[in-house]
Amino acid sequence: MQVAADLQKGLDVYAIREQFPILKREVKGKPLVYLDNAATSQKPQVVIDALVNYYTNYNANIHRGIHTLAEEATAAFEATRDTIQKFIGAASREEIIFTRGTTEGINLVAYTWGRQNLHAGDEVIISGMEHHSNIVPWQIICEEKKAVLKVIPVDDNGELILEEFKKLLTEKTKIVSVVHVSNALGTVNPVKQIIDAAHAKGAVVMVDGAQSSVHLDINVQEMDCDFFAFSAHKLYGPTGVGALYGKKHILEAMPVFQGGGEMIKEVTFAKTTYNDLPYKYEAGTPNIADVVAFKAALDFMTETGMKKMRDYEHELLAYATEQLEQIEGLKIIGKAREKTSLISFIIDKVHPQDVGILLDNRGIAVRTGHHCAQTLMDRFCIPGTIRASFAIYNTKEEIDALVEGLKKAIKLLV
Amino acid sequence: MTIQQIEDEIVEEFSLFDSWDDKYEYIIDLGKRLAPLDNKYRIDENKVRGCQSTVWLAAEYKEDGKIYFTADSDAIIVKGLISMLIRVLSGRTPDEIINAPLTFIQRIGMTTHLAQTRSNGLLSMVKQMKNYAVAFKIKNSQLQ
Q1: In this prediction, what percent of chain B has a pLDDT beyond 90?
Q2: What distances in angstroms separate CA A117 from CA A23, A121, A140, A198, one per listed residue?
Q3: Domains of chain B: which residue ranges?
Q4: Distance, in angstroms, between A407 CA and closest chain B CA?
């Protein structure tokens, strides 16, 4: 019955599950129910194979060597850049810079663009639902430059209050850095409106795409953002690699980030000239293997079908919301009109950590705590939440197992 | 009873449980029954570092030359773990606490279940209790 229903919807979740070897394992003697996808997603066999294939057959340092292995490795590495360019709709491949992940992407912009363009009294706007990685880099650069950090408030449903944002936006605003999808609430923010309003005041906009890139169709040109950062590991790809998109003319004008090999044109002790985009920002030997495997992850998503994945994720979100709301004492934190497949919740008289431990004892992996968004938890006056986040390999049966596990945990704890 | 004997006793109690469900039920029960912490101890200096739950741990050195611990947490399983640590370590001399083997944590399988991550802070609690013992010992030797 379930299989037939899923097939009708277009996504054969059981065929998808077959491609993820880790889903066959047991935890604490029970089948793994992995609902911590917003932290990191599991990897399909094609991604694992790409990593193994790289090290088995063509491991070499890229861009420099003239031998066959180096050429093959370089071609594979650069092919990922082309795939990312298409995946996020960038105008040119030079606008894609490889990073260690979203965090490094944001730091790169804060340390280069920020250092060049922020001055005493200038203002930086972030939102009240940022991950620490989109707060701390700006605090550091604001402190250094004596600039002021402003915060867009969040309403009770977990949505940004845009009227307040418009009040914060002035001629002093130099950059707005905002999360596309909240990792703690699942809220999809109206980034297009934010970008247009910021541009009208002459500010640039950075979008933190760590959560959105796996759940939404990204087109940076339509969005018109100036920077967009995301990580491979949230998109079924390997850890330790990500990409930063920046508009070409902005990247060209920015100072360099880290110095070293690869990012230079010519080095003398008197003066060094820097390489062209994107290599100007890619000092040192990059994470070649993981960049190569990143392409396999993006190809996996494209071949699975973006629309099919979106529809299925929404179905899971709707089902989980409906089921969880029936649990007595459970309160969902974050009821935005537009959400990705993530539910944060608290339960009366129960500490999230206790629930997390008891669920783990049943093989169910959720995230508990403040989700690196302490300021947002303070906004809701809670120490943390329990977060279940769904990927395309999750099933309604797994949501049923979560509900069952929660009921048993509550019975023990209250 | 010595610390070693109490540790053995806890291990024996846990051996009666067939499943981890039962073990957790027992730990939760211990947590619920832990003596309440006096409000005067609920201060920042008594907080033990942990990522997710807050633990308050107070130590009092009494005239009998022994240290008495009281504690609380907002998470009940952590509270149950503290309850066991207090049972083993409270009312002992600084030297006894410093030299306590505390192998029961491993022997009841707690280390595999509550991995040594920053999230549960079990090891932070143990460390903090031993730190108190060291501090009282140093203070004593300076007084003498």
Answers
A1: 57
A2: 47, 12, 14, 16
A3: 3-143
A4: 14
